[in-house]
Amino acid sequence: GENVEQHPSTLSVQEGDSAVIKCTYSDSASNYFPWYKQELGKRPQLIIDIRSNVGEKKDQRIAVTLNKTAKHFSLHITETQPEDSAVYFCAASRVWAGGTSYGKLTFGQGTILTVHP
Amino acid sequence: IAGITQAPTSQILAAGRRMTLRCTQDMRHNAMYWYRQDLGLGLRLIHYSNTAGTTGKGEVPDGYSVSRANTDDFPLTLASAVPSQTSVYFCASSPGTGGSEAFFGQGTRLTVV
């Protein structure tokens, strides 16, 4: 089955700096890679995702890059703010042809991001 | 408000007791999942269901069972709870056809003593 490794486990940055979280996956058939943000005591919520037919996707201060050859993908947060402090999870799954996703998402271990004012 | 809800939100359970965690969604999503979240281990899949009437085992299924009698409900049962099942449990759903995003319930914090 799929195995997702996530690094670092903790990340501390100053407000305004950039933060990068990296994940590797093992199953070359995986083609859908979402990132979730989980605030303390809350549920995980999707912040950005990427499919294997693109190499990069941006949404305001958040971007995700994907290297299919190396089987790794990364989350980039620019101009970090204290409200970005949370646990971030990467995940991988396989979306079947036609868009059907019986996506048993396999998650990384999580990264605790702390943004200091 | 459309979404996915879990009950109870927290529970303290004596070891050996039987417990069912409830999960209901009103988004007509085909796929539903149960994850457990433990510190340092991320979210691990327990069981999943691609559509009503079908279920499958995830990464850590032992000691748990599920059923999917209809589209909306996906209960998780611990037949005889053990302390290692102390965890936060999240139910999630995704559209399946045409969509991949997983939507999570608010979680159930279970303590087995």
Low-confidence stretches of chain B: none
Please indicate the percent range of residues of chain A in DSSP E strands (runs of 2 or more).
Answer: over 45%
Oligomerization category of the chains in this entry? heterodimer
Please tell me what the overall shape of chain B is.
globular
Average pLDDT level of chain A: 92
- Major sheet attributes of chain A: 6 strands, mixed
Taking the alpha carbons of the first and last residues of chain B, their distance comes to 35 Å
Number of strands of chain A: 11
Poorly predicted regions of chain A: none
Q: Proportion of β residues of chain B?
A: over 45%
Instruction: Please work out how many helical segments of chain B DSSP would assign.
Output: 0
Write the element-wise H/E pattern of chain B from the N-terminal end onward. Answer: EEEEEEEEEEE
Structural class of chain A: mainly beta
Largest sheet properties of chain B: 7 strands, mixed
The tally of helices of chain A reads 0
Key descriptive features of the protein:
heterodimer, A: 117 residues, mainly beta, 6-stranded mixed sheet, 5-stranded antiparallel sheet, B: 113 residues, 7-stranded mixed sheet, 4-stranded antiparallel sheet
How would you characterize the overall build of this protein?
The complex is a heterodimer of chains A (117) and B (113). Chain A is an all-beta fold and 117 residues long. Helix content of chain A is 0%, strand content 52%. Chain A has strands at residues 4-7, 10-14, 19-25, 32-38, 45-51, 56-59, 62-67, 72-77, 86-92, 106-107, 111-116. In chain A, β4 and β5 (45-51) form a beta hairpin. Chain B is mostly beta strands and 113 residues long. In chain B, the strands form two sheets. In chain B, strands 2, 4, 5, 6, 9, 10 and 11 form a seven-stranded mixed beta sheet that branches. A four-stranded antiparallel beta sheet of chain B has the order 1-3-8-7, with no helix packed on it. The chains are: A mainly beta (117), B mainly beta (113).
